[in-house]
Specification:
Structural class: alpha/beta
Shape: globular
Radius of gyration: 26 Å
Strand order of the largest sheet: 1-5-7-8-9-10-11
Largest sheet: 7 strands, parallel
Distance between the termini: 78 Å
Number of strands: 20
């Protein structure tokens, strides 16, 4: 039993909290501001109210030190770009004229100015805005946001710790600005950036900060000796400053490896480390590095990225081991709680037996404070909590909900041949050309069309009983008719039904697969004001009935052009869900793939000639350490091929990916063996097309020519220029023309104009190409 005297100072803290509010008040206020219905002052007032409510909630739960600076209108990396004055030249006038409007212009673009590139935050589904830097970048400190939010928390009588993106991670996340040589390394700007961080730290100390947290998650990735030397230099320089608060350097999402001794030896006052999942290896590594004698260790023993309850006994064992390795041990989640929903208690529709297995942000703060109490006062102080935790863990382990013998038997019977199409690509391509008869540079969209207010109202009316199922389905049929008619008039070559019946590309399928649970209030930020409700994978997965065949065949009945069947792939079904942690991911992926294979087979049998199985999360889920890549990519690509491996050679299989670093996984993209892949390319200026060409990718590809995450409408000339860049890398007979991603979040006016320009660009270039 832990003695009280040994760890009387043990405290509970978190690195960040969900921003949106219980009813997504932040989303509504920001979107109201964009539409001119909410003033800037009203938006700022809503934000301040949400921050105050979050801090009070944390303090009320027993969190001793609340985070500040983690709140953001759009993205915390974008906030850091403003903090260090790295505003791109094209946005400076807007930012100087109106700071808030300019901020959103950087995030979303305007009709005249492109936004910053957006990509995934490590291996999460959160998107950040990529800093654009070059050799001429001049940094300048602007700590107003961080100081203001710190003072707000201190005014409430709370102990607060500002949380900032660390300088090394900020530079490692950055890319060369447009017009800068592609081989420029932003990390070379470190010595220019550190004085700016020093100024911000001094401002925060003057405002009352005792501690400041600097997040360095990039150090859990494989880093070169030069990058590790840069981290050592950064924290030597910052640590030896005289005018600064105490510094807590945090890293999370995986094990630190060679970076851990670098940080342990740095002249900083503490480290915050992840001890969950693969990052559990940090415990032995910390011991091998000699621990943190005389320093603070914030131990992330509660999983900040998944929603299952913590094993309190196991976490206490880890914490007990850590006591001998640091001068002070505090308790936290493994990372910011930004990545989980707010409150599991709100999920009244979830079976109470299952609900006791769940811990969202609010429940995780209680777990953290319970562990801090047990660490400080001994396990006798938390006897009741430990007993309830043991009972809940046993309930889940022994529940028939989690295991289906038939599903497990089918998965175990899968052979390697099941995950391979028997015909080589060249044979399939010939059969598909003959069957589909498409022109050069065929045009299509990714799948979804705008989810209008009328569609959302129809779903709300159905839930409220204002319309019956028949009335709802007639509204869906009418929307499909309109979408098909629009695509035919616009001249698209391969059509989609628009997915009006789908609330989310993962949730829709999860609600129709056994083994999944859907939430009603489990919103998580994906980017900006885009929130999703990741479903929960609670048990073995199977498909009780067809999920998409009815609406796809209805759409096909309205046109003579091919209509794509639209499915979400097995890896993305895992990545954008809260996955079960009681079996290997590969096993769960195989189960999902078999359920999707049934759907693919039924679509083909119903006459669907083009089937798209989206895998936007394939790169996102790539482990952060290269040593872990081969195993992941092997089971991930096998799962995709298992879902599509049973179709005829003349059925064209598409896949789609967006907003990730595709160059890291080109071989895996090849290994999927899809006939056509569409990828995000507009914001990254067709980089992926050249990456595919450099690899020798042999199949068809559609690098996007319309950035759908911005409200701006690209001109036909802009689309033509991007297509010419694509043609420089991919032959015309293998190049498709499409947007970057689905159109669910766009309005109809911009959708009509942008697709008309896209088709015009394809036709203009098609007319100038020699006949094939």
């Amino acid at each position: 039993m832990t003695t009280k005297s040994a760890v009387a100072a043990a405290r509970a803290t978190v690195y960040g909290y969900p921003r949106q509010g219980r009813n997504r008040e932040l989303k509504k206020a920001i979107e109201g501001y964009w539409k001119g219905r909410v003033t800037a002052d009203a938006l700022r007032a809503t934000a301040a109210e949400l921050r105050s409510a979050h801090w009070r909630q944390l303090a009320g739960a027993g969190i001793h030190e609340v985070p500040t600076g983690d709140f953001s209108y759009y993205d915390h990396v974008l906030d850091t770009t403003l903090m260090v004055g790295a505003v791109p030249a094209r946005h400076r006038e807007a930012v100087h004229a109106d700071a808030l409007a300019g901020y959103f212009a950087m995030a979303r673009g305007t009709q005249d100015v492109a936004p910053l590139e957006m990509t995934k935050w490590f291996d999460t589904n959160y998107h950040y805005l990529v800093p654009e830097l070059g050799p001429d970048t001049v940094f300048a400190a602007d700590s107003a946001k961080q100081v203001t939010e710190l003072k707000e928390a201190l005014a409430l009588g709370l102990t607060a710790r500002p949380v900032l993106v660390g300088p090394v991670t900020y530079l490692l996340l950055a890319k060369p600005a447009p017009g800068v040589a592609a081989d420029f390394e932003p990390l070379t700007l470190l010595d220019r950036l550190l004085p700016v961080y020093a100024e911000v730290l001094a401002d925060l100390r003057a405002a009352g900060a005792e501690w400041v947290q600097l997040d360095e998650p990039a150090l859990v990735q494989d880093r070169t000796p030069a990058e590790l030397d840069a981290a050592a230099r950064a924290y030597r320089d910052l640590g030896t400053l005289t005018d600064r608060p105490r510094l807590l350097v945090a890293s999370y999402f995986d094990r630190l490896g060679d970076a851990l001794p670098v940080l342990a030896k740095a002249p900083v006052d503490g480290l915050a480390l992840d001890f969950t999942g693969p990052a559990a290896a940090n415990l032995d590594a910390l011991a091998a590095a000699g621990g943190l004698p005389g320093k603070r260790l914030v131990a992330g023993v509660v999983d900040g990225r998944n929603i299952w309850i913590n094993d309190l006994h196991r976490s206490l064992t880890t914490l007990g081991t850590l006591l001998g390795l640091a001068g002070q041990v505090d308790v936290a989640a493994s990372c910011s709680l930004l990545h989980v929903p707010l409150d599991a208690a709100a999920e009244k529709d979830v079976d109470p037996q299952i609900r006791r297995w769940l811990a969202f942000a609010k429940q995780k703060t209680c777990e953290i404070t319970t562990l801090a109490t047990g660490l400080a006062r001994g396990t006798d102080a938390i006897t009741g909590e430990l007993a309830a935790n043991r009972a809940a863990l046993a309930s889940r382990a022994n529940s028939p909900i989690t295991r289906d013998p038939a599903v497990r038997a089918r998965a175990e019977a899968v052979t390697e041949a099941d995950a391979r199409r028997p015909q080589p690509y060249a044979e399939r391509a010939a059969a598909q050309r003959a069957h589909l008869d498409l022109p050069l540079l065929p045009t299509t969209t990714i799948g979804s069309f705008p989810q209008t207010a009328e569609l959302r109202a129809a779903r709300a009316d159905l839930r409220a009983g204002r319309i019956d199922a028949a009335g709802y389905e007639e509204r869906i049929r009418a929307e499909i008719r309109d979408v098909i008619s629009f695509q035919e008039k616009t001249g698209l070559d391969v059509l989609v039904h628009g997915e009006p019946e789908r609330n989310d590309m993962v949730q829709y399928f999860a609600e129709r697969l056994d083994g999944y649970l859907a939430t009603r209030h489990g919103w998580v930020q994906s980017y900006g004001t885009r929130y999703v409700r990741p479903p929960i994978l609670a048990g073995d997965v199977s498909r009780p009935a067809p999920m998409t065949v009815r609406w796809t065949t209805y759409a096909q009945s309205l046109t003579g052009k091919p209509v794509k069947g639209m499915l979400t792939g097995p890896v993305t079904m895992l990545a954008w869900s809260f996955v079960r942690d009681d079996q290997p991911l590969a096993d769960t992926a195989r189960q999902v793939a078999l359920a999707l294979r049934d759907e693919v087979d039924d679509l083909e049998a119903a006459g669907t000639s083009v089937i798209q199985v989206d895998e936007p999360a394939l790169r996102e889920t790539l482990p952060l350490r290269r040593a872990d890549h081969p195993d992941y990519l092997a089971w991930a690509t096998a799962a995709f091929r298992l879902s599509t491996g049973g179709v005829r050679p003349d059925t064209q299989v598409h896949t789609h990916m967006c907003y990730a670093e595709f160059g890291d996984i080109v071989q895996a993209i090849d290994d999927l063996d899809a006939d056509v892949i569409s990828l995000e390319a507009a914001r990254s200026h067709m980089r992926v097309a050249h990456e595919l060409a450099a690899h020798g990718y042999p199949r068809e590809a559609g690098p996007g020519v319309w950035d759908i995450h911005s409200p701006r409408v690209p001109s036909a000339e802009e689309a033509t220029a991007l297509l010419r860049e694509g043609l420089a890398a991919i032959p015309a007979e293998r190049l498709w023309v499409n947007p970057d991603c689905g159109l669910k979040t766009r309005g109809w006016a911009e959708t009509r104009a942008s697709l008309e320009h896209l088709v015009a660009a394809a036709r203009a270039l098609r007319d100038r190409l020699p006949p094939s």
